[in-house]
Specification:
By secondary structure, this protein is mainly α. The protein has a domain of 36 residues. The protein is built from three helices and no strands. The chain is elongated. 0% of the residues are buried. One of its GO terms (cellular component) is mitochondrial inner membrane.
Length: 83
């Protein structure tokens, strides 16, 4: 019983000690400086190419959806011809 507790304690100490050695560098300050920089680019596009692609895809879908809704409203407002 004591051996299991001792080995469990060693495992927990080992994982804690190895985790503290490989800490991840905190780069939040760099990101904040980059996104707050005044360079004429809107903040929602400062992330790079992927942000631009997502923005343009969203705008295209919005324009297409709006046009489709207007078309459907026009179709619904016109009475069907009866034969």
């Amino acid at each position: 019983m004591w051996r299991k507790l001792l080995s469990l304690r060693q495992i927990s100490q080992r994982t804690i000690s190895t985790a503290s050695r490989r800490q991840i560098e905190n780069r939040i300050a760099e990101k904040q400086k980059f996104f707050q920089e005044e360079n004429g680019i809107p903040v929602h596009l400062k992330g790079g190419v992927m942000d631009v692609l997502l923005y343009r895809a969203t705008m295209a879908i919005s324009v297409f959806g709006t046009a489709y809704v207007v078309y459907q409203l026009l179709v619904a407002s016109m009475p069907k011809k009866q034969k």
